[in-house]
Fold each of these.
Amino acid sequence: MLRFVKMQGCGNDFVVVNGIEQPFHPTPDQIRRLADRHFGVGCDQVLAVHASTTQGIDFEYRIYNADGQEVGQCGNGSRAIARFIYDQGLSNSVRLTVRTRTAQLHLERLDSGDVRVDMGRPSFLPPEIPLLMAERSAYELPLGDLGTVQFGVVNLGNPHAVIVVESVDLAAVGAIGQALQQRPEFPESVNVGFLQVVSPTAGRLRVYERGAGETLACGSGACAAFAVARRRGWMASSATIEMPGGPLTLGWQDPEAGITLGGPVETVFSGEWHWDG
Ligand SMILES: N[C@@H](CCC[C@H](N)C(=O)O)C(=O)O
């Protein structure tokens, strides 16, 4: 029996597990069954909070995509984890530091009750994405019948490619997303964002996530799109990015500082799942 809480942030939905009060070391197959929308609970990602033994780190935070793979970053998930930590009475500190497999995140509870996360500094360097191409300001790859796509790349603890489009409504998100993910130039696959810049403070974004397909929102994807747009001078230091599931707020005041991500997050229900039921 596994106790869990179902949460969502702008429709990016999670099964969240307290790995401190119950053992949780899932196999990829168990994650896939839990995340299945017909045979399981259903979610884009499974998240788990564990105790930390490292000074300066309040909690360890594990992230599993719906396909069963553990990954290193989930921006919306980190905001859900903070809310979960407060709701479960694990801490009431306004500021929390959590560590994932690849990133350290600083979370802050705002007066409104929302949680803002400092996602750290983005990296644009190909080896850090990882992307097996020489460094340049914009990249290009042929995708067969889909034509050639131009994109920027960012790592925020996980890999992102960002394609700037005229209209997100017309973008071939699934087809291009899948094709780019399969390119050998991305040895760890990639999350693919389609960004429409509306104004210096507003954008629209759809993301085809690695291990989950198109989601209603992607926090690290929003940060990645904002980072690419900001670097090219198209966006101001604060902006709102509208995703199919709702708006996320982004800030990046100083290139040496981290990108901040804010937005709503809520608990939907809690339950018990029968691993072998
Ligand atoms: N939804 C997430 C990102 C989850 C992980 C991603 N699919 C990956 O494989 O890196 C977010 O809000 O950042």
Amino acid sequence: MHDNAPMDNDLYTVAQLRAIEQSAYAALPPGTLMRRAGEAAARFALELLGGRRDRPVLVLAGPGNNGGDALELASNLADAGIDALVLHLPGQREASDETASAHERARDGTVGFIDMLPPGGDWGLVVDGLFGIGLTRALDGQYRDLVAALDALRCPILALDVPSGLDADTGAVIGPDGIAVRATHTISFLGNKPGLHTADGRDHAGQVRVDWLGVDPAQLPSPAARLGSAELFAQRLRPRRHNTHKGIFGDVVVIGGAHGMAGAPVLAARGAMYLGAGRTFAALLDPGPGYDSVQPEIMFRPADGFEFGKRTLVVGPGMGGSAAAMRLLATALDSDSPLLLDADAITLVGASPDLLSRLAQRSAPAVLTPHPLEGARLLGTTAAAVQADRLAAAREMALRTRATVILKGSGSVIAHPDGSMVINPTGNAGLATAGSGDVLAGMCGALLAQGWPAWEAALGAAWIHGAAADLLVAHGIGPIGMTAGELPAAARAVLNMLVNETGV
Ligand SMILES: NC(=O)C1=CN([C@@H]2O[C@H](COP(=O)(O)OP(=O)(O)OC[C@H]3O[C@@H](n4cnc5c(N)ncnc54)[C@H](O)[C@@H]3O)[C@@H](O)[C@H]2O)[C@@H](O)CC1
Ligand SMILES: [K+]
């Protein structure tokens, strides 16, 4: 059993990892780190093989130190009696003395060597040691063909350090038409990496384990970002007292619902209600429905002329871009209310320097929940550019707006205006469905209404929203066909579970 240490949640950039590597390297006899990496990876490989130790293991070894780690792993597996076969492409030259020695050790032992992928192949496990953090360009030629051929295999794939082809900083597959190994498991050396957890990272890295190769934690720099966990908002998870009333838990007003778009604010209002807002209003731009027959507790009002007071405002779901929408948004921005901007409200802010400066000048809490295209509008760029470096994009949005930002997508990035960043680890593909963002907006609004600071409300809402989707999948409800309307009740179950287990 491998338990995650708290520092496993710290995420380091390649530049930071190089610095950690250099100081550890200088303090140890040559080859020590590579040997340790090979041992740690071999232990993991044996765990993954389980009862299938009679099956051969295919080890792909590249030219750099990632390949050296792979060769060390192969020697260790062979020593453990496993039939380990190294695929070493023709013409490949070892880039370092350590890798050359690892190669020699493997040649001297019982490791087998091949120079092309045999057809078929009933592998117990495939290990990807082609490239790690030293990858500088897209995979091409024989490497590309090899990685493409792995997709046909039906066995676990263990990536060493980083799945080959993936950018360890951003989680983007390198190259415009790039390719990267799709691992089921990744063992990350000398610290965890942001690119394993966002953008394409989750699809390519699979389950991530961190091995520190014995480095002294006191020598570590402060991480560039962190992986989210319930501990980051545990302080706010308070059990409710008996002697309370609805006025204590705040009011949420969802402002949106242009003609034909009433579903979005209704979903947001349900999200708010199920996460414990005292009272929830749907303030609609279009007359729309008078009430929600599924959730009649939601109070419907015309947005025009509605007194917001100090209620928490969730602005944007289905709001459209009309002059009336813009007026309501300006009023909300100028208010002292805790504020959440989603969807059309973010697009409007992106199109208006005036609205942007009103947002940046607010003193009351503000959270933005853009998807990549809305984020791109805010930054004046394209969704592809946002996705190419989600952490940098989220940080820039938070700096410009002076608000907490949740950049949605696989591995949502939560950015604080002070530069802090967290990647949310929960959730699954079931959330890629219409309305799930509306529910998130309402949920975050409910936490703001209950007095959570913007940063913790964003962390909590993103984590609980993802965990709700994971809970639904565990019950066979999705990911295919999961609907946004199923999320609020699951999120309520997650929140109450957290309060019972973690709450102070
Ligand atoms: N140096 C050390 O002591 C340690 C190294 N470690 C391992 O070493 C890795 C980093 O090693 P390296 O810096 O050697 O880098 P890599 O092993 O990731 O690859 C670098 C090599 O690949 C070549 N290359 C880069 N992109 C290519 C492409 N698209 N097609 C073909 N060739 C390409 C480079 O010219 C270089 O020769 C880490 O990811 C980790 O696995 C860890 O074991 C920790 C200790
Ligand atoms: K690799």
Amino acid sequence: MTEPIQGLDGKFYDLSLDPDTDDNTLSFIVKPLDPPPKESVHQETSSGTAAVSGQAGHPLMGSIHKKAFNDTAGDTHRKTFDEFGLPEALLRALALLNFRWPSRIQARTIPILLQDPPRNLLGQSQSGTGKTAAFVITMLTRLDLTNRSTQGLVLAPTRELARQIVDVIEGLGQYMGVKTQFAIPAMFVRGKEFDAHIVVGTPGTTLDCVRRGQLDLDHLKMLVIDEADNMLDLHGLGEQCIRIKSTIRHNVQILLWSATFPHRIVEFSKRYAPDCLTMTLEHHELTVTGIKQMYMDCINAEAKFGVLVQLYHVLTIGSSIIFVHRRDEATRIAERMTLEGHKISVLHSALENGGAARDKVIDDFRSGRTKVLITTNVLARGIDVSTVSMVVNYDLPMDKDKRIDFPTYLHRIGRTGRFGRIGVSISFVHDTTSWMQLMQVSEHFGVQISKVPTGDVEVSSHLIRCDIFNVYANLG
Ligand SMILES: Nc1ncnc2c1ncn2[C@@H]1O[C@H](COP(=O)(O)OP(=O)(O)OP(=O)(O)O)[C@@H](O)[C@H]1O
């Protein structure tokens, strides 16, 4: 048995994570130790229920249910989707998908985005708080689905995110007869005109399709740019997004979304989406309460791999993502982890094969066929896999000037702790520079990043479990 953990209630528990999480819960085995309670422990919170229950003397199954708290909660008066005047077919799909209440960003944006005349928006909210459904619900409500012209265009930075967005549109639009198409490499027929209500694409391929006359945007009503701070960055995809915008009418409603909007991008974004309503957050509001941030101090860069192996020996924790800086490093670590007996997937942009290889990797990970995914920043943004309960920053994210990249840190750790779940992020530091960079992260976002010792396997395991437990105990 592992070392007991003292909960905030003063009692002692043995806690281990249960990897068999379902879509709605992160579960763990909790065994009360001192003394075994006669009745179940049941803790009601103001915004949901966190329960540890079971019979005395038996291992107990505790779980954090999908519940709205913190960033995902609506405002004081909790609105319902029924109040937004949505089509009946959409309400049916929301009910089927178990979307019972809108999250805060959904409650704030959907009603105003549905008003006439349509307003542009720059919308920011923490990772995993339901921005995708916010724009998909708006789009499905606004479009005339009896007309087969392309009325909605969604641009995303990667094929994985574009595929995920189409899944959300098809899920929410399943009773509405909505047709979607991709404008991503190898996912459309060259020379054939697009005839879908909504096209979801990456900027380069979308622009290509518009220029070839395959994609007609004359009837466009709504343009959504997901991960907009990244997409409008002139060092990246900004130029292509500007060109796409120059082909559309000026009364098209433009929605820009992201969890991060650095100041330098906000001004440009406001020019891209003129007169937009702006919902932004301060640095210290950006972190998600359910994500416990930690770090491990490695003696040097070479020692990091040993620490990683040690970490995976003591924790079997649902699914996890390991972020590294370089593609060759991702492959190298994957090979070594495989030799250690782990089932590993690797995804980076050099993995092409017309996209099929990338699609298989992410599909295997999503379905739980693989539990550990090693990747680069290509998957730092947007990807929503609810079973991910740990993110490892094997290397800290750097910008092109070799400074710590705050937005990417936030997006990476945001692959866990989604929509009210709890998760852990562990960043590796290996010298004074990386340690100072992590302290800058802590200061920038106003969060505590606690140290997990690397020497003693049992102690590190215990401390991580202890921290997770306290996040759990503090919920609500
Ligand atoms: N109202 C709701 N009720 C229940 N679940 C929801 C609701 N809205 C969204 N979700 C779920 O929350 C999860 C996170 O949503 P989503 O991926 O849209 O977050 P996001 O804010 O776009 O995150 P990121 O900034 O990382 O891109 C998804 O699994 C989605 O199905």
Amino acid sequence: MSAKEFRTGTVAIVGRPNVGKSTLLNKFVGMHVAITSRKAQTTRHRIHGILTDAQSQFIFVDTPGFQKQHASGLNRVLNRTVTQVASEVDVIVFVVEAWKPDERDEPVLSLLPDEVPVILALNKVDRIRDKAKFAQVLAEWNARRDFAALVPVSAEKGTQVKALLDEIRRFLPVAPPVYEADEFTDKSERFMAGEFVRERLFRLLGEELPYSTAVVIENFEQEGNLRRIAATIYVDKPNQKAIVIGEGGQSLKRIGTEARHAMEGMFGGKVHLELWVRVKSGWADNEAMLRQFGYE
Ligand SMILES: Nc1nc2c(ncn2[C@@H]2O[C@H](COP(=O)(O)OP(=O)(O)OP(=O)(O)O)[C@@H](O)[C@H]2O)c(=O)[nH]1
């Protein structure tokens, strides 16, 4: 492979909430950079996962979940991000669930720009039993848009993920790599720290908490191999604060312990983590506050 043929480009992974975008991204980069959970819309930041192999460098832009039913300020910001990201990349991977074209995919489909090639990834094929019906689903999707390719995958099992990667590669421009091969994300440790707290929060309390929770890293200091991190979990209502803290502080303690262990594994050093919970009502509707929380 000569340097002249090396390909580098950006890839947006789009799709409505819960279709498996984060799982796919994690599979691609082989590392746990974006959080996954059963709860819809847990990915709010634009995360760059990077995969470099002998022939190419894929720079993945993970886009936020997409929900039309709640017209809050948060969703307006999310929708803007999805369109903006989609028009700036070399190729788009549009992730849907494989069993049937779903009307909830329509808002995302309608936002995809015409000038960027779109690969349809039909995810969760591990749950497909009826092959004949699946052929019909493929035909239906084909009729809806001129996709650059249609690839059935299972992000969770890894089935066909390599085939999907090969399809994506075809659309990356010939260019030298932008990032060093061992970089997996362009976000700082500070950002990752916030992601770990958010992940544990959703994992532990996902069923009880609404989407209106944000994590802000207030302090991040490094002394030798010790990192001192202070984070605030913002909730909308006092009763949510009580849920996050839990009986006798049990929940908050568990979130803190698990997040700290995850950080220590990732950063390769000791972490001292301090967690606070604060009520800031209406934050999901206030665009200035959203910017403060890093939701561009
Ligand atoms: N059976 C099966 N489940 C999958 C597959 N890929 C993802 N899932 C599950 O689908 C759920 C949603 O996955 P995520 O990766 O969090 O989905 P997402 O699209 O990033 O969701 P948002 O962040 O809400 O936009 C999780 O429970 C995953 O375990 C797959 O290939 N097969």
